[in-house]
Amino acid sequence: MKALVITSLSGPDALSIQDTAEPALKPGQTPVHVAAGGLNFADFMTAQGGYPGTPAPPLIAGREFAGMEESSGRRVMGYMQWGAFAEKVAAYSHMLWPVPEHWTDEQAAAFPVNYFTAYLGYWQAGMTQAPAAGRTHRVLIHAVAGGVGTAAVQIGRILGVEMYGTSSSDEKLRRVTDLGLQHGINYKQRDYEEAVKDLTHGEGVDAVFEMLGGEHTAKSLRCLRDFGRVIQYGTATGKQPQLDVRALYAKSASLQGLWLTYLSQKREIMEPAWTQLSEWIAQRKLTPVIGQVFPLERAVEGYKLLQEGKNYGKVVLKI
Q: Distance between CA 243 and CA 213 in Å, rounded?
């Protein structure tokens, strides 16, 4: 079968389409013929050696896919740690979900990582429950025009959350505003910490969805209300998150990690999340936002689009 292989951990240029052996099935796995793969920033980090636990190359890239389950013929979408960008994958049955009839393969491939991450972020922040009387949940979403960001805006709109989002361009912010974002912040024109302070009249937000790392973890802590939470789900800058311990103390705040690879193994968490997400999908309230689709032969272009921060919504590979 053909697969996108990471030949060395040196960045997108080390990616190569190669003929590889079909995957051997392990107990609990089922073969899936892949039609499309969802490209995530974690895939870029993996290709350049910045993702923890990455096996030594060569290895097949990709962690998100959509296609047809060989045994049943049903359309499915799924998640795995590595190996998704290939014509065939061996997927664990509990990590597969049925594709909604009204979705394309590309839309299905854009769903699992972004929407589970966004939903679980709200869940960890306590926002899947109604706020106290007279209060509205507030969230700051970094990279709001990206895959997780656009998913978080759609979900936040359903939950009635007041959303603040950062992005690098006014054009991207306008497009996310159409999805339901109330407060867009162009971080190239204005410091988002000061913007949040001004927009909330000094109060801050209840949660920050943070995937940048470095100084942004400390800045995000300072954006919080009392008892607020920073939900850390990545380190796109490649820098270790910095803490502002004084802000933690002053606001009785907390920093909480979110790693989908870990949570995805817990059925008691994933099954209720899927029950809610699938209900919203059936009501046509959730639709993956796809920015660009590349054939597998042009996968490097997709990776570099993420590297340069020029993507809007999800980048998808046609397998």
A: 10
- The Cα angle at residue 70 between residues 30 and 94, in degrees rounded to 5: 35
Beta strand ranges found along the chain (DSSP E): 2-6, 15-19, 29-39, 59-60, 64-69, 75-79, 88-92, 96-98, 138-141, 162-167, 183-186, 205-210, 224-232, 254-257, 290-295, 314-318
Residue 192 dihedral angles phi and psi, to the nearest 5°: -70, -30
Tokens encoding 183: 């407060």
| pTM score, whole prediction | 0.96
Question: CB of 155 within 8 A of CB of 118?
Answer: yes
Residue 30 bridge partners (DSSP): 91
pLDDT in tens, 6-30: 999 999 999 999 999 999 999 999 9
- CA 124 from chain centre, in angstroms, equals 15
Rounded distance between C-alpha atoms, residue 87 and residue 35, angstroms: 7
The sign of the torsion formed by the CA atoms of 143, 76, 62, 298 equals: negative
Residue 226 backbone dihedrals phi, psi, to 5 degrees: -55, 140
CB contact set of 28 (below 8 Å; sequence gap of 6+): 92, 93, 94
Nearest to 135 by CA among 36, 206, 39, 230: 206
What does the alpha-carbon distance between residue 158 and residue 286 come to, in Å, rounded to a whole number? 9
Taking 50 as the pLDDT cut, the residues of the chain under it are none
Distances (CA, A) of 295 to 183, 203, 224, 306, 316: 35, 46, 42, 16, 9
With a CB cutoff of 8 Å and minimum separation 6, the contacts of 56 are none
C-alpha dist (Å) from residue 233 to 66, 209, 218, 259, 262: 23, 7, 14, 6, 12
